[in-house]
Structure formats: C-alpha cells, structure tokens
Inverse folding.
C-alpha cells in the first residue's frame, strides 16, 4: 500500500504551524512480514510520488514475483523500469524508489532476524547525531536562535538546510554559517 499523509509541525523559533507531507509505503509478504518506508514530499509532489509507487513500482515488483532483494530496484531503475518511460531516476521517481527500497530493507531485516543497520554494515555502539535546521523561511537572526536552542539541548553538530539558490551564493552560505 502507499498512503499520502499530512502532518502538522511546529516550526521552532517562529512557533508557527506548517504542514508536511509524508508518503508511507507498506509492503506485506505472503509470510506476514510488513516492511515500511517513507519519503517526505509536499503537496502535488507527494501525490506524484504516491502515484509512481502505485502505478509503476508496485506492478514492477509484482512482475518480479513480489519482494525483491534491496538494491535490485535501484539497479533496474537505472536502465529504465520495464513498462515505463523512465530513464535514470531523478526527482519524484528517486523519492518513490527510496521509500519502496526502505520497505524492502525492513522486510529483509525481519526475514533474517537482524536490524537493518547491521545489514547495511553499521555496527557501532554509539554514533554522534546532528540536528538539521535552517528552514529557508528563517531570517539570519532566527537561524542563529535555532542553532542556540539546539546547542542548549546538547547537539554539537549541525546541518543547515539549503536556501533557494541551493548554495550557489557562497558569500550568503558563509554568512549563514
């Protein structure tokens, strides 16, 4: 199945509400395992991701006999999914494949009785986490306030979201940091 959900989120610093779209993919095997994957997309883009999953990826998986090994979907997509006009996944297609691939990894982990992070080669006891912030709606002062709040919560590493120019303006990016 594939659902498009909207979730309300409070934007820190501004304390305003904003809706975010989530595409939720669920793959269920004949043996009863249920894998879940998700992608974040907004408005018509999220609905387009959902339609690619339902119209193109689900029938493709059915033609392969159901659940395929993780990674095979990416490989097939690179050469054009059979029965589609896609060539080289980008944008909406990439997002749809990612959500389905997550669900396939989730199923694989259940079948093998291992957490997905171990299947992917990660076996550290601890990792340092970082906070992603810097919505393109923030003023520079609001970004600074968001960083201060995250630091006060114990975060030591930060990742700034891009602004409209996607990092093309180096002096703007440097000023933000």
């Amino acid at each position: 199945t594939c659902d498009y959900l909207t979730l309300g989120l409070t934007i820190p610093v501004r304390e305003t509400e904003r809706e975010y779209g989530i595409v939720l993919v669920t793959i269920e095997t004949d043996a009863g395992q249920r894998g879940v994957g998700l992608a974040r997309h907004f408005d018509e883009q999220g609905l387009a991701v959902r339609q690619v999953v339902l119209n193109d990826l689900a029938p493709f998986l059915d033609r392969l006999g159901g659940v395929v090994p993780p990674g095979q979907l990416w490989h097939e997509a690179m050469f054009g999914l059979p029965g589609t006009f896609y060539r080289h996944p980008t944008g909406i297609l990439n997002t749809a494949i990612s959500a389905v691939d997550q669900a396939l990894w989730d199923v694989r982990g259940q079948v093998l009785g291992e957490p997905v992070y171990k299947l992917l080669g990660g076996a550290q006891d601890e990792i340092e986490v970082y906070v992603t912030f810097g919505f393109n709606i923030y003023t520079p002062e609001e970004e600074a306030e968001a960083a201060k709040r995250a630091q006060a919560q114990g975060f030591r590493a930060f990742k700034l979201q891009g602004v409209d120019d996607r990092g093309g303006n180096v002096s703007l990016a440097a000023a933000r940091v």
Q: What stands out?
A: Residues 74 and 94 are 9 Å apart (CA to CA). DSSP finds six helices and five strands in the chain. Helices lie at 43-63, 72-78, 91-112, 116-119, 140-152, 170-176.
